[in-house]
Amino acid sequence: MIVAANFKTNKTRTQTREYMDEVNRFIHLEKIRCEVIVFPPLTALDSFMGEVTLGVQNAYAVEKGAFTGEVGTEQLDEFGIQTILIGHSERRHVLGESQEEIAHKFNYFKELGYKIVYCVGEKVETREAGQEALMAYINAQLVGIDLEYSNLVIAYEPVWAIGTGLVPSNEDIRSIHADLRAKSSRPLLYGGSVKLGNMDEIVSIENVDGVLVGGASLYAQSFCQMIKIAEDKI
Ligand code: PEP
């Protein structure tokens, strides 16, 4: 099981350090075997002791250079970061990353051997158009992506479920994860309004190998409880 936290544009450097200390302590004390990944904002990247894997929410497909406002691998190397989130709906729909740009980024970081948590997910109008339209939309988000890359993790995150409190039915999650499983043998995460109250149900669904959590990951204590629920499914 993989349990990942996406802080988005939340938490300071100090708050992130406190959070990492608490989660790392919990993992050590409870002898957690789940893989736990935290994606803090860029300003909070640092070196942390412990088992939590530190990932980056975004980076530019370059080592270094003249790319104002971006970070490249030289900056990530300083903190030993080898994990990146690519294709998140906010980067696609708010920041306007095209599939071509996303695939380019994917291939750049794949060549460097990064663990890539690659997100796909439909908007509500696509969901309402039925299963065929939905899978066509998701397939378009997989163009240019090596689905058997050995360090790939796929996260299915319906856009309409992110930060809204809405979650697809268990059957809908099961069905999409079955379709994704037919395309890739890599771990499949579900993301979109996962919280302590629905964690057990979601990680019990067939082909759900873990979760990507936004809002509910911000509280270390409840995130630790979510990790424990995932651990009990191993
Ligand atoms: C996310 O942004 O990846 C996410 C799943 O957010 P939330 O858990 O807040 O819906």
Description:
The protein is built from 9 helices and 8 strands. The chain has one domain: TIM Barrel (Alpha-Beta Barrel), CATH 3.20.20.70. The protein is 38% helix and 15% strand. An 8-stranded parallel beta sheet has the order 3-2-1-8-7-6-5-4, covered by helices on one side. The longest helix has 17 residues, at 13-29. The chain starts with a strand and ends with a helix. With 234 residues, the protein is of the alpha/beta class. The model has no long low-confidence stretch (mean pLDDT 97). It is globular, with a radius of gyration of 17 Å. It binds phosphoenolpyruvate. Phosphoenolpyruvate binds at residues 6, 157, 162-163, 191-194, 212-216. Phosphoenolpyruvate is lined by residues 6, 157, 162-163, 191-194, 212-216.
Lay out the secondary structure.
Layout: E1 2-6, H1 13-29, E2 35-39, E3 53-54, H2 73-77, E4 83-86, H3 89-94, H4 99-111, E5 115-120, H5 124-128, H6 131-140, E6 152-156, H7 170-183, E7 188-191, H8 196-203, E8 210-213, H9 220-231
Helix pairs in contact: 1-9, 8-9
The chain binds phosphoenolpyruvate.
Phosphoenolpyruvate (PEP) is lined by residues 6, 157, 162-163, 191-194, 212-216.
